[in-house]
Amino acid sequence: MIFKLAHLEGIKAGEITLAFRKWKKPTVRKGSRIKTAIAVIEISDISEISLEEITNSAAVKAGFESLEKLLETLNTINEGTIYKIEVRYYSEDPRIALREHTDLTEKDFQLLKNKLERLDKYCKEGRWTLAVLKAIHDNPKLRAADLAVKMNKEKDGLKINIRKLKNLGLTISHEVGYTISPMGELALKRLSMND
């Protein structure tokens, strides 16, 4: 489940407590916790709802200025059931602290290197981690679609791989594109020396 940055900030501040999505099948369930760009968000409840049941007040609680604006967003998707999702801030994203970790010991670096090698080993395309880190480093905040073209990769697969790097604290997702984290910069420098 993806949230716009403004909505994430509203959830974190307690100003946004609802989300609405149109899905063929729900991608979250009650009690799920989602790591997002700025925090871990918890799904307190999820239920089906019709367009007619959505109120202006509910639209505002979902971060929209009016019911009309929410309906415009929902109507961009042709098929699916509408879900009303109760959301709340759960905790800081643990990856934020991780990505600021720049005093890697040799042991820390070897553990990270082993994780990257494992990602490379179990990918059908072969080694990709260093190439993706270098591409993001050289093209900060470039849209995923454009980065995929530059790398001659399929966009959705590339986004999944970048998420794997983000889970290790190496990249930062922005409203548009990605950058290398401080730890990612350090790791990239050391990996490039060994490559």
Name a few traits of the molecule.
single chain; 195 residues; alpha+beta; Archaeosine Trna-guanine Transglycosylase, Chain: A, domain 4; Arc Repressor Mutant, subunit A; 2 domains; four-stranded antiparallel sheet; two-stranded antiparallel ribbon
CATH superfamily (homologous) name of the largest domain? Winged helix-like DNA-binding domain superfamily/Winged helix DNA-binding domain
Structural domains: how many: 2
- The rounded Rg comes to 19 Å
End-to-end CA span:
36 Å
Q: Write out the strand line-up for the largest beta sheet, numbering strands in chain order.
A: 1-4-3-2
- Helix % is 40-55%
Give the CATH class of the largest domain: Mainly Alpha
Which stretches of 5+ consecutive residues score pLDDT under 50? none
| CATH third-level topology of the largest domain | Arc Repressor Mutant, subunit A
Helices and strands: which structural class? alpha+beta
Mean pLDDT: 91
Give me the number of helical elements: 9
CATH architecture name of the largest domain: Orthogonal Bundle
Q: Sheet bearing the most strands, described? A: 4 strands, antiparallel
Order of helices and strands: HEEEHHEHHHHHEEH
Tell me the fraction of residues in β-strands, as a range.
15-25%
Shape: elongated
